[in-house]
Amino acid sequence: MARETDRDGRAPARRGFLGALGLAAVAGPAAAIEAEGGTGGLPPQKESEAEKRKPRYRETDHVRAFYRTNRY
Amino acid sequence: MARLKFLCDSDRCIECNACVTACKNEHEVPWGINRRRVVTLNDGRPGERSISMACMHCTDAPCAAVCPVSCFYGTADALVLHDKDLCIGCGYCFYACPFGAPQYPRIGNFGGRGKMDKCTYCAGGPQQDNTPVEYLQYGSNRIAEGKLPLCAEMCSTKALLAGDGDIIASIYRERVQQRGYGSGAWGWRTAYKQELSA
C-alpha cells in the first residue's frame, strides 16, 4: 500500500494542522484557568508561611466603635 | 486571642441585600460570583426569615479537609483563607461546604471552572497586605487596616455581626434578653460546633 507522504518523505501539511488543533484544545482551557485568579501581570509578593498564619485582627478604635454601636 | 466569627441575627435582617452589594463593590468581585448572599426561608408566608450567608470560617473546615492541593490555610485568629495560585478549580470544596460558600468564575468547556473565590473576611490572602496583587486576587484587606468586614459594618439594621466571637455572642445575648426572643445564631452549630443560648 502506498504511504501518504509527499515526494520528500514528509507527512502532508494537513496532519500538522490537526496536531495544532489538538494542542489548542488542551492548552486553551489550561491557559484560561491560569488567567482566572492570576496576578494579572503584577509581580507576586507572597507572604512567608509564618506571615500568612499570623493573627490579623486588631481591636482598634474603629472596631470598638462597631461593637459599641451594635449594642444599641 | 480573638476567634473571628460571623453572626446573623435573623430577627433583624430585612433582606435589603446591602451586605451583598457592599461586598461586591468593595472587592470588585467578578460578574457571576457572590461571596455573600441573602437567603429567605418561607418567603411570603408567616414566619418568613432572611439570613445573610457567606463563608463562616468554620472550625475544622470541611473545604480544607477535602482540598487535593491543600490550598486552604488557617490563620491564628481562625480565618480560613486560600491560595489561588495553588487552586486547580476541582470543585471539591464546593461539595464539602455546608454553606455553599465557594464560588467559581465560570463554567467552561472541559469542566474548567477557574480559581475558586470565597469570602476572605476582608482579610486578603497569602500576598503581602494591601498590595495591588493582593487586591487583584483576593480583594480589599480591611482587617489589615484595623477594620472589620464591610458587609457587617454596612448593615443598616445591624443584623450582621462580625468580630471577636465572644464579644459578638455577648451582644447577641443582650439583644435577646432585651427583646425577649431570638432564633439563635444561625449556622454556629455547624460551623463552630457551638450553640449560642441567651
From TrEMBL, chain A:
Lineage: superkingdom: Bacteria
Q: Which InterPro entries does the entry mention? A: Formate_DH_TAT-contain, TAT_signal
Basic and acidic residues compositional bias, start-end: 46-60
Q: Where is this region: Disordered?
A: 34-60
Q: What is this protein called?
A: Formate dehydrogenase region TAT target
**Organism, per UniProt?**
Paracraurococcus ruber
TrEMBL record, chain B:
| One of the Pfam families matching this protein, by short name | Fer4_6
Q: Which UniProt keywords apply?
A: 4Fe-4S, Iron, Iron-sulfur, Metal-binding
Query: Has keyword Iron?
Result: yes
The 4Fe-4S ferredoxin-type domain sits at 4-34, 78-107
SUPFAM superfamilies noted in UniProt: 4Fe-4S ferredoxins
Report whether Metal-binding shows up as a keyword of the record. Answer: yes
Which PANTHER family does the UniProt entry name for this protein?
PROTEIN NRFC, PROTEIN NRFC HOMOLOG
Q: Which NCBIfam families match?
A: FDH3_beta (NF038355)
Q: What is this protein called?
A: Formate dehydrogenase
Source organism per UniProt? Paracraurococcus ruber
